[in-house]
Amino acid sequence: MALAVRKDWDTYFMDIAFMASTRSRCPRRHVGAVLVQGKKLLGTAYNGAPMGVPDCSEAGCMIVEEFAPAPSGEPGVMVKKERCIRTIHAEQNLLLFTDRIDREGSTVYVTDQPCWTCANMLANSGIVEIVFHRGYPKDHDKVSALMAERRIVFRTIPDYAPPQDTEVKDAD
């Protein structure tokens, strides 16, 4: 019997990030993150409400409205964005539940490109690489610039496809 093709390390760890994301109870987006040093898995996390607090599936999303400049860059044109503030982001949970010593020189695999706040936190965490799958156009340029300035590798995996039944479509 022929052996199945073995997954490369990037695919393996990104698959684990997507599996971690299935623990999220957020109806809008499931995000998972994995901390890896070398080929050693050091931690996993997902987005969700603080421990012991009702999550979005129990208490509903805690939506706030923000106005931001239109992506077109037209002066004076603003677009309304809604976001939930009930949950702690996967990257934030990963930092909360791992030790600084483990993060030094490590890689974070995350299902979604980090937002500006998470990127700032990751930039100060000791990690040297962030690998993500889904983009976040709103913050892409400034997050990419921050990662370049901090000399943190910031990349996607070409032709990556998440495991079946692990993706929740963004409600935005």
Automatic annotation (TrEMBL):
UniProt xrefs under PANTHER family: DEOXYCYTIDYLATE DEAMINASE, DEOXYCYTIDYLATE DEAMINASE-RELATED
InterPro entries for this protein: APOBEC/CMP_deaminase_Zn-bd, CMP_dCMP_dom, Cytidine_deaminase-like, dCMP_deaminase, dCMP_deaminase-rel, Deoxycytidylate_deaminase_dom
PROSITE patterns per record: CYT_DCMP_DEAMINASES_1, CYT_DCMP_DEAMINASES_2
Catalytic residue list: 91
Location of the CMP/dCMP-type deaminase domain: 8-154
Any Gene Ontology biological process: pyrimidine nucleotide metabolic process
Family per similarity comment: Belongs to the cytidine and deoxycytidylate deaminase family.
Cofactor field: Zn(2+)
Signal peptide: none
Superkingdom, taxonomy of origin: Bacteria
Residues binding Zn(2+): 89, 115, 118
The protein, known as: dCMP deaminase family protein
UniProt KW keywords: Hydrolase, Metal-binding, Zinc
An example molecular function term from Gene Ontology annotations: dCMP deaminase activity
GO (cellular component) term, any one: cytoplasm
